[in-house]
């Protein structure tokens, strides 16, 4: 009965059935959270774990059928590794290797040249959860003085039970599209610690509804405008026949609209976490905060003229996970650039096996490198600092935003088109303008520094 209804619904919405199933599953998280609040909040931990496991498995079955076995296998194997290997480096390496190889195998056997919603999509979220679980378990065996503040928050001082690991993995608010959170946060949720009223239901309905409304607005924007900016248009003769300026502006608008696909899902899912209480983040400036599971800072995302600002406001929890478990744990390399490159390589592999991911993340690294050098130049140059703070700044801001969103969409082309033959065709049609622009800026910046930065400041910079 459900299949014909979903088929008709997907036809009426003009969306693929798997996409409709996914968004319905994210929305179903709200009724699940209400059931938890109304009937299960004061129940024993075992009952709550079972509810989270069953609801998560139901969502997995609804979307992927019998392929839910892949997630169940990985969760169970991870639990066995925690139990059998203990708090050891071997345990971390084994967990990392097994979970990543399983994900890579899934990508290899299910990969197509299109963006498909299949079991590997939530599995990449689960992979980070389970690898992070191994790190947090390892950290729990260290002296508190050896841990950073972040590590102290996630460190597991006791061995988690099977129900805890499965409940954490299948929690309906984060199983399908994230956000990332630690098992320690999940344990605090079940123990009724994540609330603004100790021992009582959190007053999180209004904050959750605000995120739901914002997420639904983003989903509406995407639904309205995405048919006008399909990925497939890049490969048509019509796109190639357009004027150069049109092809560039299309990339700008397409990139903006396309990102709302992710923004809407993440913000709606965040609302589910807030409603359940998982989003509680303590008190700041006398106000209770509900942003522990925030995956988007939408105002910053919309208003920042900087590439670094967009990256900092987008997919926050995944970026924080990568910083905590990859970048900062590579401190022994003694070089931030090496750590940054290694982190981007990990994220590239984690996203998938297509060449488009490699190009996207390598381009991101280059853009951020150039932007940081440009920011340093503006900061060190009295003339540029004066200009940046003058009445001309609104005009400068508009130009910045145009360049920002044009070249924000530029690396997303291979990210979404995946394969070499497709993204190369698009880049060739716009003469690799993004690569040319940032390479030119990179080469010019040292000469501008000699001209615009006083010699005294340059010499002090070199000494630093």
How would you characterize this protein structure?
The protein has 464 residues and is mainly alpha-helical. The chain has helices spanning 2-13, 17-40, 45-64, 69-85, 89-110, 120-139, 149-154, 162-170, 183-190, 205-225, 237-241, 244-276, 298-303, 307-313, 316-327, 336-351, 355-380, 382-388, 393-417, 420-429, 433-452, 455-463, and strands spanning 283-284, 287-288. Strands 1-2 form a two-stranded antiparallel sheet. A hairpin with a 2-residue loop joins strand 1 and strand 2. The chain is globular and about 65 Å long. The mean pLDDT is 93.
Task: Give the SSE layout.
Blueprint lengths: L1 H12 L3 H24 L4 H20 L4 H17 L3 H22 L9 H20 L9 H6 L7 H9 L12 H8 L14 H21 L11 H5 L2 H33 L6 E2 L2 E2 L9 H6 L3 H7 L2 H12 L8 H16 L3 H26 L1 H7 L4 H25 L2 H10 L3 H20 L2 H9 L1
Antiparallel strand pairs: 1-2
Helix pairs in contact: 1-2, 2-3, 2-12, 3-8, 4-5, 4-6, 4-8, 5-6, 10-12, 12-19, 15-16, 16-17, 17-18, 17-19, 17-21
């Amino acid at each position: 009965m459900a299949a014909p209804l979903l088929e008709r619904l997907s036809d009426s919405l003009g969306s693929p059935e798997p996409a409709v199933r996914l968004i319905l599953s994210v929305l179903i998280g709200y009724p699940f959270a209400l059931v938890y609040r109304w009937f299960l909040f004061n129940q024993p931990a075992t009952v709550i774990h079972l509810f989270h496991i069953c609801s998560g498995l139901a969502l997995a079955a609804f979307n992927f059928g019998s392929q839910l076995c892949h997630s169940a296998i990985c969760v169970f194997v991870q639990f066995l590794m925690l139990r059998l290997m203990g708090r050891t480096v071997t345990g971390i390496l084994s967990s990392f290797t097994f979970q990543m190889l399983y994900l890579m195998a899934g990508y290899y056997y299910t990969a197509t040249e299109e963006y498909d919603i299949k079991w590997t999509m939530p599995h990449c979220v689960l992979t980070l959860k389970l690898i992070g679980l191994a790190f947090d378990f390892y950290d729990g065996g260290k002296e508190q003085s050896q841990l950073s503040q972040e590590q102290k928050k996630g460190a597991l001082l006791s061995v988690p039970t099977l129900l805890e690991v499965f409940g954490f993995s299948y929690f309906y608010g984060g199983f399908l599209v994230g956000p990332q959170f630690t098992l320690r946060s999940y344990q605090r949720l079940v123990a009724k610690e994540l609330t603004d009223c100790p021992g009582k239901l959190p007053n999180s309905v209004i904050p959750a509804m605000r995120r739901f409304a914002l997420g639904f607005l983003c989903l509406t924007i995407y639904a309205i405008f995405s048919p006008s900016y399909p990925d497939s248009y890049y490969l048509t003769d019509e796109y190639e026949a357009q004027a150069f300026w049109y092809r560039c502006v299309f990339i700008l608008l397409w990139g903006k609209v396309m990102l709302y696909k992710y923004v809407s899902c993440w913000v709606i899912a965040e609302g589910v976490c807030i409603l359940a209480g998982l989003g509680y983040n303590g008190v700041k400036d006398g106000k209770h905060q509900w942003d522990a599971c925030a995956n988007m800072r939408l105002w910053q995302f919309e208003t920042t003229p900087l590439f670094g600002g967009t990256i900092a406001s987008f997919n926050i929890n995944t970026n924080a996970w990568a910083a905590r478990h990859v970048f900062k744990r590579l401190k022994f390399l003694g070089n931030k650039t090496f750590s940054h490159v290694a982190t981007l390589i990990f994220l590239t592999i984690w996203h998938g096996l297509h060449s488009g991911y490699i190009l996207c993340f390598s381009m991101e690294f280059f853009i951020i490198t150039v932007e940081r050098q440009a920011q340093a130049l503006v900061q060190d140059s009295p003339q540029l600092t004066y200009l940046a703070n003058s009445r001309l700044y609104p005009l400068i801001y508009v130009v910045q935003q145009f360049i920002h969103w044009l070249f924000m969409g530029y690396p997303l082309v291979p990210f979404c088109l995946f394969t070499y033959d497709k993204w190369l065709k698009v880049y060739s049609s716009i003469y690799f303008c993004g690569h040319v622009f940032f390479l030119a800026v990179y080469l010019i910046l040292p000469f501008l520094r000699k001209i615009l930065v006083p010699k005294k400041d340059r010499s002090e910079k070199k000494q630093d």
